[in-house]
């Protein structure tokens, strides 16, 4: 199967300038993501699961390692070294990220929030809104809320909008950071069905799930991470 992403020796640490210390977040992470398959990241709190996703999406600049992404033209790009322009273009066309929290314009209605990625790709506004409405309906967002700003929504309703926005453009590589953490069981089942459909269409996914049951239901490959520094160990001092 086609490898979309290869992560080789990824590490991320943060520098506390005032204390002269390095705080490790993830270390020596190796994994692959293949077309039509979901790779799940598992491990204890503090193992750096979210740091891996943010490094791939370039929210964080990696400290070490290679993040080799193969684009639609077959070109291999090291995301750790890619320019800001390259990263933004990949986000617009090929790489999506569903985070744990919804960030959007404060007065924008839910329908337009979800349709926005399609508008960025040049789709007609009416067509984009129609597709957004269909996806919101599948995730059980009531029609009365479609033109309301999600800032007023409950946590579960916000996460449905967040998930719909992340899925609607059907990116080639989809990163998922606990996308169902705030969802009720029925909506979680709806989300699982959508993710399975995306896999069938050849989309590769790298995901963190809150519940082990979701790993069992969706993951084709599982990567176990361990905490970079064990509890009680001294944090590395800079010299």
Structural topology:
Blueprint: E1 3-16, E2 21-34, E3 38-42, H1 49-57, E4 64-70, E5 76-78, H2 84-93, E6 95-98, H3 110-120, H4 125-138, H5 155-168, E7 173-177, H6 185-200, E8 204-208, H7 212-218, E9 221-224
Parallel strand pairs: 3-8, 3-9, 6-7, 7-8
Antiparallel strand pairs: 1-2, 1-4, 4-5
Q: What coarse outline follows from CA principal-axis ratios? A: globular
CATH architecture call of the largest domain: 3-Layer(aba) Sandwich
| Residue share in β-strands | 25-35%
Distance, first to last CA:
45 Å
For the sheet with most strands, the description reads: 5 strands, parallel
CATH third-tier fold name of the largest domain:
Rossmann fold
Round the mean pLDDT to the nearest integer and report it: 89
Residue runs with pLDDT of under 50 for 5 or more positions: 230-239
Based on CA atoms alone, the radius of gyration comes out at 18 Å
- Classified by CATH, the class of the largest domain is Alpha Beta
Number of strands: 9
CATH superfamily of the largest domain: P-loop containing nucleotide triphosphate hydrolases
Strand order of the largest sheet: 6-7-8-3-9
H/E element order: EEEHEEHEHHHEHEHE
Helical proportion, percent range: 25-40%
Give the count of structural domains. Answer: 2
Class by helix and strand content? alpha/beta
Query: How many helical elements?
Result: 7
């Amino acid at each position: 199967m086609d490898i979309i992403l290869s992560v080789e020796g990824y590490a991320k640490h943060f520098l506390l300038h005032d204390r002269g210390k390095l705080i490790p977040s993830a270390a020596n992470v190796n994994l692959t993501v293949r077309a039509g398959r979901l790779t799940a990241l598992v491990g204890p709190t503090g193992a750096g699961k979210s740091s891996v996703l943010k490094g791939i999406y370039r929210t964080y600049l990696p400290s070490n390692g290679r993040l080799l992404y193969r684009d639609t033209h077959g070109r291999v790009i090291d995301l750790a070294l890619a320019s800001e322009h390259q990263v933004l273009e990949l986000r617009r066309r090929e790489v999506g990220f569903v985070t744990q929290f919804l960030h959007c314009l404060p007065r924008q209605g839910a329908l337009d929030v979800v349709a926005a990625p399609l508008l960025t790709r040049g789709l007609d506004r009416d067509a984009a809104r129609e597709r957004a409405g269909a996806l919101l309906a599948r995730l059980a967002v009531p029609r009365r809320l479609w033109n309301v700003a999600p800032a007023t929504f409950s946590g579960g309703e916000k996460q449905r909008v967040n998930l719909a926005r992340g899925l609607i453009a059907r990116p080639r590589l989809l990163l998922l950071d606990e996308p169902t953490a705030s969802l009720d069981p029925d909506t979680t089942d709806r989300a699982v069905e959508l993710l399975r459909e995306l896999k069938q269409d050849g989309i590769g996914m790298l995901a963190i799930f809150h519940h082990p049951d979701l790993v069992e239901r969706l993951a084709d490959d599982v990567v176990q991470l361990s905490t970079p520094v064990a509890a009680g160990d001294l944090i590395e001092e800079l010299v």
